[in-house]
Amino acid sequence: MTINPGAAEFPHRQIATQLKERIRRGDWQPGERLPSIPAMAEMFGVAKQTVQRTVDQLRVEGVLITKPGSGTYVRGTRRRLNRLSRGRYGAHRGYHADLAARYRQQLVSVGREPAPPEVADAFGVRDGTELLVRRHVVRADDATVELGASWFRVAETSGTSLERAEAFGRPLYQEAEEALGKRYASATDTISARQPSRDEAEILQIRPDTPVLHLLHVAFDETRKPIEVAQATWPGPMTTLTEEYRIPAPVPAATDSDPGLALA
To answer: Which residues does 92 contact at the CB level (< 8 Å), separation at least 6?
Structure first.
């Protein structure tokens, strides 16, 4: 492995490209430790600071992960979020079997908290209004890949099973429909990119300058009243969003002989 000192590309980026090629080729597998920074510096014939810049870049991109006192490792594959939040409802209003097999959801806490601005706006209440929130994390292998929270109105959930700090063994929306006597009829997803909070970066094991993808999911009843406002946060470089949909066939052009054609 060599670099070209006369190339327009910075040395640390040349090294990053070569490391990614080797990882893609399978020379280093997910979870495998890379050579030390001094060893790679000698391998490429550059200063240790140059290799450190390479490692920093690939950590931000989600290719590598550094474990203090242990070394630098190849991160696992990207998490594909197929059909965004619609996946939670499934083909028959239930979990997709493949998602349940690959990811483990763990309930972290259940309680009443002040609503953050985006949640308050979705419910149409004042910032800081007390709401019921159920928080969870999703893990794949040994990594946390999602931070999630589902918010409900206190007046509607008081005395229901939604207040209990326990997993239900079925999708949360099914429990909510039964507990609240409402049906989830429609939903909107809003996705944005931002920098993580300190707690998010620590739990997701990413650098503070690594962007995250953030989802705001608002589920409505048949009268368009919000039932649940859910949040999900994923490490951006390790997450891909996939949306598959059908494209409508073109509508035949109207002609003068069409019975439905109206002339002004």
So the answer is: none
R_g of the chain, CA atoms, integer Å: 24
Give the H or E element holding residue 142.
none
| Residue 86: pLDDT over 80 | no
pLDDT at 262: 47
Residue 238 is classified by DSSP as G
Strands 143-153 and 130-140: antiparallel
pTM as predicted: 0.73
Question: Which residue spans within 41-123 are E strands per DSSP?
Answer: 64-67, 71-74, 79-82, 104-114
- Our CA dihedral for 206, 196, 87, 77, rounded to 10 degrees, sits at -20
Beta bridge partners of 104: 139
CA angle in degrees (0–180, nearest 5) for 157-161-162: 55
- The whole-number average pLDDT for the span 159-169 is 95
Buried b (16+ CB within 10 A) or exposed e, 60-76: bebbbbbeeeeebbbbb
Q: Which two tokens stand for residue 168?
A: 């239900």
Contact 227, 155 (CB under 8 A): no
